[in-house]
Amino acid sequence: MRRTMLPFLILLAWTLLFCCGQTPEGDTACQSRFYVATGGDDTNPGTHERPWKTLNRVTQHSFVPGDSILFARGSSFTGGLLITDSGNEVNPIVLAAYGEGPAPRFTNPQLNVLNGNMIQIRGSYLVVDGLYFYNGVGTTQEQVVDAREIAAVYLTLGADHNTIKNCEMVDCPVGVQSYGQYNLITHNYIHDCNRFLSEPNWGPIGIMVATSNHEISYNRIVNYTRTGGTFGADGGAIEIDNEDYPNNNIYIHHNWSVGNEGFLEIIWGSDITWDVRVSYNVSDDYQEFIFFWSGKDCFVENNTVLCTRPRNSRVRVVFSFNEGNNIIRNNIFVVANGIQVFTGTDVYGAERYDEQIFHHNLYWCSDGSVEDPCGLPLGEGDIVADPRFVDLANLDLHLMEDSPAIDTGLDLDYETDFDNGDVPFGKAPDMGAYEFRSSF
Question: CA 287 from chain center: how many Å?
């Protein structure tokens, strides 16, 4: 079976297409629409002509499957919105925008209001679509936050089968955090947070998940890092972080990650983390591509990874490994500043590089600081060569026609590359996140 969406997400996608579509205003399948606008009044009935005004009024209402909660474009809302009701497989509850102009804006500067969450979801089968979140709660001299309780959008334990999509999150120390299962986090733009969320140890994190069965896809995460603190610098694009629940069946794909402290971190607890699949992502980050503090029987496939930024923290590696038997193949790794892909010292003890399964990868050192960018004897199909990107300096990482990565990967049953073009396009899949096409 081709590896595109997880089966449960395929069903959800069809549900959203036929039930709610891209413009909830014109969706005849939804049961009721409730409107909220800065110029409204909470004594109104919440209709298009007489909208509600505040998030508190929305929280007080009970919603049923198929309802839509629509926020006026150009409006701004302060505080926390709590949704405890659930939709169902056929008719989710939708939170989206209406009208013309910029996306509705949400902020919550108060830690004592829903732990600083701008939207907290306790129900299942909800969709949050096309909203704007900014200036989330972080550490100040007056307050210390629990990193596992804050987020712009927070999905609590038992909040399952939800979708967070097409949202923008700016300066939110955690963008999305999920304790539910079967949740989809997709097509969001999460960027520019340089504040501690738990000083002096934790930096900002774009997306955090704490349980199994998630898909994190097509997100653009940029500039999530904080210098200072115990580790020298901290933060990152994505984190799998909880020691209390199993973390398996997590699919992370087609994400763009640039200028974050790292791409992915999986915390300790190797007996509960497995089957994490990381594919067709682009990473140009500090500190690491993936910290496998835990994780076994995971797959890292067809990613384009740059580890060329200068060291700014206690460690600077491509990977760390606390367990063996992770499979790494069809990737392009570009390193610099003396870094090798499968080496590293003082990586908190997670240095089991020679216990991994790796082959059919391309390795290259862009500044000539190491002759062996791999660090271990090459696996089957591995090559050391310039990948021949179109424009490395400007992050155009498409392949030129003479790239040695073309047609040298394994067919791993993926259907689409980072551009959503067909895989394979030629005789065989290419290494990295992009298939070569002569039009580039």
Answer: 17
Grouped pLDDT means (10 residues each) for the chain, 440 residues: 44 41 41 94 98 98 98 98 98 98 96 95 98 88 76 98 98 97 98 86 94 97 94 95 87 98 85 89 98 94 98 96 95 98 90 97 98 98 98 98 98 98 97 87
* Contact residues for 256 (Cβ-Cβ < 8 A; gap 6+): 219, 220, 221, 222, 281, 282
What are the Cα distances from residue 47, in Å, to 43, 50, 128? 11, 5, 20
- Report the CATH architecture of 7-399: 3 Solenoid (2.160)
Distances from the Cα of 312 to the Cα of 72, 170, 305, 393, angstroms: 42, 23, 18, 20
196 token code pair = 């501690």
Collapsing DSSP states into helix, strand and coil, what is residue 374? coil
Question: Which residues are registered as beta bridge partners of 198?
Answer: 202
Cα separation, 80 vs 60, in Å, equals: 12
Quick check: 123 and 83 in contact, CB under 8 A? yes
Q: How far, in Å, CA of 376 to CA of 381, rounded?
A: 14
Q: Partners of 184 in the beta sheet? A: 163, 215
CB within 8 A of 212, min separation 6: which ones? 181, 245, 246, 247, 248, 249, 250
CA angle 382, 383, 387 (to 5 degrees): 125
Q: What is the CA radius of gyration of the chain?
A: 22
Nearest partner of 187 among 237, 221, 213, judged by Cα: 221
Domain ranges of the chain: 7-399
Tokens (6 digits) for 154? 């927070």
Q: Which tokens belong to 147?
A: 């990193």
Contact 249, 259 (CB under 8 A): no
Query: What is each CA distance from 265 to 17, 91, 200, 247, 438, in whole angstroms?
Result: 33, 35, 18, 12, 36
Contact 220, 255 (CB under 8 A): yes
- d(C-alpha 45, C-alpha 27), whole Å: 20
pTM for the predicted model, two decimal places: 0.93
Q: For position 143, what pLDDT does the model report?
A: 62
Which residues have C-beta within 8 Å of that of residue 225, sequence separation ≥ 6?
A: 194, 203, 204, 233, 234, 235, 236, 259, 260, 261, 286, 312
